[in-house]
Amino acid sequence: MGASCLAQTNALFRKSLVIQRRAGKTNCCIVLFPLLLFSAIGGLQIAINVEMLRGLAAAASVDCGGCGGGVAVAANATGGMDCPTPCALPRAPKWPPLLQIPPPERRAVGDGDLLPFAGDLPDAASCRAAGSCAAAFLVTGGNRSFVARVMDNMFPAHNSSAKLPSDISALSDYVLAEADDELDFNSFEVSSFLQKTCTPNQTLSFTYQSGNTTETKHVQCTQGLMLWRDSLWLISDELYRGYYQGNSKKKTNEIAAAYDFLSSDQGNFNVFISYNSTKKFDAYEQDISLTFNQRAWQAPRLVQVSRLINMASNAYLHLRASGLKISFDFVKDMPRAARPMRPIDISSLIGQLPYVWTMELLFPVILTNIVYEKQKKLRIMMKMHGLGDFSYWTISYCYFFLLSLLYVMSFTLFGSVLGLRFFRLNDYSVQFVYYFAYMNLQISFAFLMASCFSSVRTATVTGYFYIIGSGLLGEFLFRSYVEDVFLSRSWITLLELFPAFSLYHIIYEFAQSALLGNYMNSSGMKWVDLNDPKNGMRSVLTIMVLEWFLFLSLAFYLDHFGSFQNGIRKAAVLFHSRVDKNRFQATQHNIQLQEFKASADNEKTDVIKERETVEQILQESKNSYSVICDNLKKVYHGKDGNAKKIAVRGLSLSMPRGQCFGVLGPNGAGKTTLINMLTGFTKPTSGTAYIEGMDIQFEMNKIYAGIGVCPQHDLLWETLTGREHLLFYGRLKNLRGAPLSQAIEKSLKSVRLFAGGIADKLVSKYSGGMKRRLSVAISLIGDPKVVYMDEPSSGLDPASRKDLWNAVKSAKQDRTIILTTHSMEEAEFLCDRIGIIANGSLQCIGNSKELKAKYGGSYVLTVTTATGEAEEEMRRLVQSISPTMNIVYHISGTQKFEMAKQEVRISQVFRAMEHAKRRMNVLAWGLADTTLEDVFIRVARESDSASSSVA
């Protein structure tokens, strides 16, 4: 008798509690995720407020810098700064482009501590003390001679000091460089100009306009060193190690840039440039609007990539024609207007999206947990041991509800504590009601979606795509509909049927109410506001509650039937069987009879007799048979143009109580499919089976209460111990108190998992053999009437296998055990009857002696003699004893003969071999009876031959 619903719920609750206690760190991280998010948001708000206060302190001395005549900046009511009238800033000046190079103390040299840089780099002792180290550029390419000529023209040669005219375009002939870490945005900083070689004290002087004054700049020459490397891999390694693996915390041995000219030649120019992008080259990006943007124009951005390309392009053009060049004269910013500084509210800046994503974060967590038990077949394993659907869904729902409740409380609590007005201004009871409705909707939606997935990986990826995609759709699509006052409310309601849009609408209305309260010193969302038809909050709540129950109903339906079609089909069959049961059974009988007549010609006598026995048993009202298979058939329909696969062909079997029935067969014969049909894993295409008088087509839930299953692959929880597994399954079999403890101890001892504390170790630390023994113990606990064991001894050592056999043999006294195996020794030791299946059909059935007598009626004589004439003479001798003998093995003087038992006597063989030993050199000989393995091989070969001839 199976456990009651309350006992099942208690068993599952205890098991789940142990698992969740061991996953406590993960659960805490999930619940505390809002704290991490809101701490980041609150910290950013504090940092912005501090910077704004600094700006306010300096406001009295700052003018608009372009509003004309130095108009004073005034603080506005919101804490920002305003110019009296908006105005355009002055015309932007022209600035020569600059190339970023490392400072002298960090340029690559030949004696770095970590690199062994190539010997062509400057010597540190001679250049770093004087601050004259060259700026190194690494070069590679497919045509080294061509690249060498390009390298020679990379920097224009000027051997003497020059003073340029005030026209800034003349600077384009020079590669101006900047090597400071901290850029001064109020002045034009040029540290050097690059040359292939520099003379002592070589200087470049030029004038430039700075505001209303003209200034003269004097810059020193820096050598630009172009160094060849054999491959881009060497360059990449040198760049990385020079930049990131320098002495102490400083970045030493830096390379300025690197060129890969690829397949470039005289008629083809291709170049790949590596440059350092970690420095901030944009002056305007440094000025992040925390100070005033309306002051005068500042220094230009460093055009790093453009200048590097320009250098290589000019060098290439010089090879084509000495007079050609691309003149890179100056850079200039676009005109822009003055902007006042406004106070920054981080909550209004981030919008609704982070809150929506945070609330949806539990969806993939719930989804993957459900799909995990589905993928690992743990759910069906529990079901096969008697766990009902109601108990499973109740405990699962309660766990996810509790997790969601804690998550929502964390979401609201931490948001309020950290000062986010989104939470503080809206009524907490209103927030709780809406979040409560949504988290229940989210759980039911996850349950529904779990029916669509069988892989945890796919479910996880889909879940996070759902979060990101639905949030973005809400922000950039649904929001525009909500804000459109001319759009019919019906369209918005239709979109809100998608749960993510319902959540987005809730967050949006809460945010708008908080924003309005912030600027008008009023409260946010209150209960009275729900009556306002403009915000639609009442309809959102109604939709969520209705969908909550709808999704739960659909999830339960799909979980029970698998699909809508299966549910309808099963309901129709059940209806017909109830309305006209006799006619339905007669139809089924006619179908089975036709299939029997079609296959009877190919079946052997023992198989036909077994089928007749099944027909006779089915007509009896009471019998002593636990399992009766009535013409079971399973067909897998072909996909992608492949032919259908018949896994089981009209199988009829009867298995009495107190016996172990062995199912043998080669791989792919249909053994596991048969077990899957009997245990509810797979629905039969036609036919049926009766377990303790109950039909597997309609009464599987009742059958589960009285069976035990050891599946082909171990279905265990990695975070439970062996004892905890048996506790759970024992409670499902209605054991409790002392009987439960005694049954667990007995099971653990029978499979050698009791000693040494093995039973109290996590299953994740078990070996494969230990997991297998635990699976067998689970199948036997609770005194099930029928036990299925699919290859129970696979992976076991000889000692453990022997103990397992003894446990199974002692357990079969008052129950039926159905066992599949590839071990003939195991089948002979445990099985009272054996059925051999091949190509989905039952080929023979009987006990071990009957099968060996009927399908292996021969002796096997093995003789080893000298090669040559002795082999031929021995062959003639054996043929004289058994005229129909068959040679089954022959190699290097060793021959194996198969002789029919009805032709020979054992004494006759012994006399013949003693006589032969006197006449020839017989090295060894032996006579053996047929083994079960020989029977198995013979039956399998005959089946293959028969199927090949039919095909």
TrEMBL record:
Entry keyword Lyase: no
Transmembrane domains' residue ranges: 29-48, 355-372, 392-420, 432-456, 463-482, 502-519, 540-558
CDD domains the record matches: ABC_subfamily_A
SUPFAM superfamilies with a match to the protein in the record: P-loop containing nucleoside triphosphate hydrolases
GO CC annotation: membrane
Entry annotated with the keyword Aminoacyl-tRNA synthetase: no
UniProt keyword list: ATP-binding, Membrane, Nucleotide-binding, Transmembrane, Transmembrane helix
GO molecular function: ABC-type transporter activity; ATP binding; ATP hydrolysis activity; lipid transporter activity
Listed InterPro entries: AAA+_ATPase (IPR003593), ABC_transporter-like_ATP-bd (IPR003439), ABC_transporter-like_CS (IPR017871), ABCA (IPR026082), P-loop_NTPase (IPR027417)
Subcellular location: Membrane
Start and end residues of each ABC transporter domain: 627-864
Predominant localisation class: membrane
Matches recorded under Gene3D superfamilies: P-loop containing nucleotide triphosphate hydrolases
Similarity comment: Belongs to the ABC transporter superfamily. ABCA family. CPR flippase (TC 3.A.1.211) subfamily.
Name this polypeptide is given: ABC transporter domain-containing protein
Organism: Oryza barthii
